[in-house]
Amino acid sequence: MPTITAPQTYRVKSFGCQMNVYDGERMAELLAEQGIAPAPEGEDADLVVLNTCHIREKAAEKVYSDIGRLRRADGSSPLIAVAGCVAQAEGSEIMRRAPAVKMVVGPQAYHRLPEMIREAGEGRRVTDTDMPAQTKFDALPRRRKSGPSAFLTVQEGCDKFCTYCVVPYTRGAEVSRPHAALVEEAKRLVDAGAREITLLGQNVNAWTGENAKGHSVGLEGLIRDLAAIPDLARIRYTTSHPNDMTQGLIDAHGDTPKLMPFLHLPVQAGSDRVLKAMNRSHTVDSYLAILERFRAARPDIALSGDFIVGFPGETDAEFEETLNVVDAARYAQCFSFKYSPRPGTPAATMDGQVPAEVMSERLTRLQAALMRDSLAFNARAVGKTCEVLVERKGKLPGQWVGKSPWLQSVHFSADAEIGQIVSVEITSSALTSLGAVPLAMLAA
Prior knowledge:
Shape: globular
Structural class: alpha/beta
Distance between the termini: 54 Å
Oligomer: single chain
Low-confidence stretches: none
Radius of gyration: 23 Å
Largest sheet: 6 strands, parallel
Strand order of the largest sheet: 2-1-3-4-5-6
Mean pLDDT: 93
CATH architecture of the domain at 9-133: 3-Layer(aba) Sandwich
CATH topology of the domain at 9-133: Rossmann fold
CATH class of the domain at 9-133: Alpha Beta
């Protein structure tokens, strides 16, 4: 078999959700442990990892397009690995259609990348789509560097089997990482520079574990224990499922100052009939009741959600019910998509597939309502003061960009540095950002 020169440089390209971003960071750390360096900006990498997402429309076809774009002017290609959910769902097809791909690795097996690279170097094409989630985390290197805001996966997989979703098939069953491992990783992230940690999971509020005292706790217990880390200033979590929401987690928003006033809780549709067809376990009334309980615990909380328009069988009247939910929820921000069938999911073969032009018209109306509420939420911030965690430089000289407690991007000019927390007064608002002037600088 022909051998391949061991890669000296790498590039990881992650698509989709925040968990994919986390996975991409961990793969980069894994490669660095092997002495492989990130490729300089603008230069070809010896190894390219395409960390894929299966949620978006035509995700697999986009992978093949990316593979084609990696071909160099001389006809050669880097060593290519396809990772993530598309790899899990379509690994054998990727190997058949894309000879340039030497490795296919699922989201629960990427800890095997170093071994797979060695096998690829011997001229073999390698696939690993096993799902022993805990083994992956046990095998990953310890966290050694971090930006001011870091992700920490606490839970993976899904047992809900929504009829439109591939996650149970690509990420496996729900698994919670051990409490002690999470506290240790969080401390390492803080030691490496993180001021804010976002806890990640497909259904993050399904996390359960046993704390240091041997007591069984839910996500609120983990959050309270992480809040005891002295130099950790902020905690967030995403994505939650209404079926797993507890009063304890709601209460934590009122009694744990480090837990930021932001909640992402997808509803997906405003019709109880459509929700049942989606195999969602909540009703419109139960969902809105949860939001009201959060507002009672933390009146200034910013709410976020997800919507799918044009689910099979959705009528005009049922779409109007979705608009009614938007009016009732008053979201600060939201994600909305047209339904697109995923091979292997029950919804893909349901009767009543909605025409594309109808879905487009509905999405336009929905996004107009969501934009209205986002603008209004941001406008209400003008004149208020808040603390901003500085994350990066802005486009203008002396300008900095950071996040408010409500996850808004805030732009301001000051003598600051990344990782500092700056007290500002909000002076202007737009759809996706706020303008501010600094009041005081808090210690980094």
